[in-house]
Amino acid sequence: MYGKENTIERQTVDYGLPYSYNKTAKPSVEWETLPAEIRNQLERQLGITLPQCAGNRYASPNAYIGLHRDKNTVIGGESVEPRYIISLSLGSARKMVFVPKEVGMKASTVESMSELRDALVFDLLPGSLVLFSNAVNKNWKHAIPQDKKASGDLCFGCYRRTAQASPSGSPPTSR
Length: 175
Description:
The structure is a single chain. The chain is mostly beta strands and about 180 residues long. The protein has a single domain, classed as Jelly Rolls (Sandwich). The protein is about 15% helix and about 35% strand. It has helices at about 35-45, 110-115, 135-140; strands at about 10-15, 50-60, 65-70, 75, 80, 80-90, 95-100, 120-125, 130-135, 140-145, 155-160. The chain has a 5-stranded antiparallel sheet with strand order 1-2-11-6-9. Strand 4 and strand 5 (about 80) form a beta hairpin. It is globular, with a radius of gyration of 16 Å. About 30% of the residues are buried.
């Protein structure tokens, strides 16, 4: 970042619609069985289509994603906002932090982020589901910070519903 070499410990994979959240983002791949089954179950329960998923693996307490807001998706040359962001936590417990958009990040640790003004810190236990709207995304940043107390892998599927449905998104599911 800013001319410095940076090694990212978080492992990522994207399914469905292309999601260019940064210049080094890998292209989306075909849906694998487990993420597709989870998507289908979420679609049935929520009554919406989820054409995109960012899979993240945090294999160590040092792996993290800093404070950010989810970006728009380009569909047919048009930048489209996310309508819903639905995150499913599988594996070890970790923390998720939300702070108002204007608050800056000091360091990427749970301790540092917990001290930020108006910070909300949630325990992500295995099987936790976090759903938030684009209104939250526009006004709050969120993070999975470094957590020295964490043990084991956290796998985190972040499914997105865009503001416009896309014919090239997920295949239709029975309702």
